[in-house]
């Protein structure tokens, strides 16, 4: 592809309300772009990668002008739809999935921790509300024999790379979560939990208070005309002439014609209960705030949150994944997620029988076959910080920072050197084999996960 005009063939569609964002006070979005602007930097997409790119640029080239163009409203897209685990360790360290060597793991952990530190520094600099970012660590938990084997493999690999952890028995798991469901847990201290929508909103507000940074919402980029000294980005009612462009649209980079047949577009889904009453909270017991990742990677993530800014105590359940190469989830996907999540909730929280789910939503992830980002300079002065391979709160932050460093010319950054020492995304099997195959494998693994789901 060597065109000088690049069109967006698809725009993001996010199914169901973004639960975390719906809990927060109403806000007025930043205006939609309705004029012609000339800037040094245009960032396309206002998720984790977009915020991180803008923040890093503001540190590196602080006299330059920066705009962020977001198709939808901030925190209504995937950035405000996730479970809020910022994870420092390689996600899957089980025997079945463990392929990386020691050096590869250490490199990834160092990069992830640097990105988490960067997010925490942003929270401090922009004075985020208490509870938006909490360095609580995470627990990987098991409820079956198979889950236990995963936890033990995980433990073994943590020992091999010299990482600290704590095993939790059934009693400890019960007093942590209130449920008898989990018989073993493995606590690792380096993860940070966030209220993702609050994070994105406050990052955006912090950024626009800086000299030279502007944000436009409801301003999808429909076309980019590449030029020799500036590129022109067209939105429905305005245009931005920018010397440099950083694309932070995750899987939608393919909608602009890049990385064709190299990116997998996976939806995953979540439900959130209504506010729990004082009596329900007493019946539940456990800690005020906790998070569980499943030992079986296809299993269920659960979070309990206490009253963040008056939004009440609630439980959040995430499971189910579907490959939707159209970048759209359908009503049948949502209906199945709803059924599976109710089942998972009932199995874990029999003491809360009858508590309804107030929100159900889905959100896009972008994966590559070889788990590498879609990163780099795609055209002269047009960079991509996309494809976060699932863990986008950290990987998106990292990719955004690294794109800002690469684009502004930081040849001495050893983080950037490490980050760029990866292959390009590999070509996927052709359709319909890819979608049929991947969805069948995921359904089979869900069935195999049994109670862990
Ligand atoms: C239910 C669920 C649970 C998850 N849990 C976790 C978790 O616990 N931990 C974790 O790390 N990750 C989790 N994720 C994944 C995480 O949310 C994503 O990986 C992350 O949001 C990716 O960040 P990003 O900035 O790269 O992309 P996004 O957050 O997708 O942001 C890209 C933005 O670009 C905008 N955009 C797209 N096209 C255009 C255009 N043409 N013009 C302008 N803007 C455009 C979109 O509207 C979007 O806001 C979860 C995801 C879901 C759905």
Structural class: alpha+beta
Shape: globular
Spans with pLDDT under 50 lasting ≥5 residues?
Answer: 94-99
Gross CATH architecture: 3-Layer(bba) Sandwich
Helicity range of the residues?
25-40%
- Enumerate how many helices there are, as a single number: 11
What hetero molecules are bound to the protein chains? flavin-adenine dinucleotide
Query: Any idea of the CATH class?
Result: Alpha Beta
Radius of gyration: 21 Å
Distance from N terminus to C terminus (CA atoms, Å) equals 42 Å
What's the β-strand tally? 20
Name of the CATH homologous superfamily = FAD/NAD(P)-binding domain
Number of structural units classed as domains: 1
Q: Which fold name fills CATH's third level, the topology?
A: FAD/NAD(P)-binding domain
Strand content: 15-25%
Average pLDDT confidence is 94
Largest sheet report: 9 strands, mixed
Task: Indicate the topology.
Blueprint: E1 5-7, H1 19-23, E2 36-44, H2 48-60, E3 66-69, E4 85-86, H3 102-125, E5 133-134, E6 138-142, H4 145-160, E7 166-168, H5 170-177, E8 184-188, E9 192-194, H6 196-208, E10 213-216, E11 223-225, E12 231-235, E13 238-247, E14 264-273, H7 278-284, E15 290-294, E16 301-305, E17 314-323, H8 331-348, E18 357-367, E19 374-379, E20 382-386, H9 392-408, H10 414-420, H11 433-449
Parallel strand pairs: 2-3, 2-13, 3-10, 6-15, 13-20
Antiparallel strand pairs: 1-11, 4-9, 5-9, 6-8, 7-8, 11-12, 12-13, 14-17, 14-18, 15-16, 16-17, 19-20
Residues 8, 11-12, 44-50, 69-72, 77-79, 81-85, 220-221, 248-250, 252, 268, 270, 318, 363, 365, 388, 390-394, 396 line the site of flavin-adenine dinucleotide.
């Amino acid at each position: 592809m060597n065109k000088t005009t690049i069109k967006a063939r698809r725009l993001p569609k996010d199914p169901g309300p973004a639960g975390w964002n719906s809990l927060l006070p109403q806000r007025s979005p930043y205006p939609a772009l309705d004029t012609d602007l000339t800037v040094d930097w245009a960032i396309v997409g206002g998720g984790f990668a977009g915020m991180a790119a803008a923040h890093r640029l503001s540190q590196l080239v602080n006299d330059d002008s920066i705009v962020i163009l977001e198709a939808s409203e901030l925190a209504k897209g995937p950035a405000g739809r996730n479970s809020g685990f910022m994870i420092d360790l390689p996600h899957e360290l089980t025997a079945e999935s463990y392929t990386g060597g020691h050096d590869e793991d250490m490199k990834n952990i160092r990069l992830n921790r640097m990105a988490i530190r960067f997010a925490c520094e942003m929270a401090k600099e922009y004075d985020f509300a208490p509870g938006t970012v909490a360095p609580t660590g995470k627990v990987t938990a098991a409820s079956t024999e198979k889950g236990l084997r995963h936890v033990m493999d995980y433990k073994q690999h943590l020992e091999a790379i010299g990482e600290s952890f704590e095993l939790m028995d059934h009693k400890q798991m019960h007093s942590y979560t209130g449920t008898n469901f989990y018989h073993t847990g493995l606590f690792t201290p380096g993860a940070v939990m966030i209220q993702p929508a609050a994070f994105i909103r406050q990052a955006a507000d912090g950024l626009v208070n800086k000299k030279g940074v502007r944000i436009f919402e409801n301003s999808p980029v429909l076309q980019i005309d590449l030029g020799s000294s500036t590129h022109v980005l067209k939105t429905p009612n305005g245009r931005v002439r920018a010397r440099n462009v950083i694309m932070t649209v995750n899987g939608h980079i393919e909608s602009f014609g890049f990385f064709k047949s190299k990116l997998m577009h996976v939806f995953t889904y979540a439900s959130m209960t209504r506010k729990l009453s004082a009596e329900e909270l007493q019946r539940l017991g456990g800690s005020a705030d906790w998070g569980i990742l499943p030992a079986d990677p296809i299993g269920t993530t659960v979070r309990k949150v206490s009253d963040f800014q008056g939004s009440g105590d609630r439980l959040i359940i995430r499971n189910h994944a579907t490959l939707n190469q159209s970048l759209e989830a359908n009503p049948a996907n949502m209906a199945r997620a709803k059924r599976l999540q109710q089942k998972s909730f009932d199995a874990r929280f029999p003491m809360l029988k009858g508590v309804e789910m107030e929100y159900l939503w889905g959100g896009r992830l972008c994966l590559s076959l070889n788990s590498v980002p879609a990163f780099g300079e795609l055209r002269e002065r047009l960079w991509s910080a996309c494809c976060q391979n699932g863990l986008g709160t950290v990987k998106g932050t990292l990719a955004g920072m690294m794109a800002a460093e690469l684009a502004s010319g930081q040849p001495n950054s050893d983080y950037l050197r490490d980050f760029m020492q990866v292959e390009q995304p590999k070509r996927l099997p052709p359709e319909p084999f890819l979608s049929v195959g991947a969805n069948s494998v995921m359904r089979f693994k869900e069935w195999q996960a049994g109670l862990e789901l």
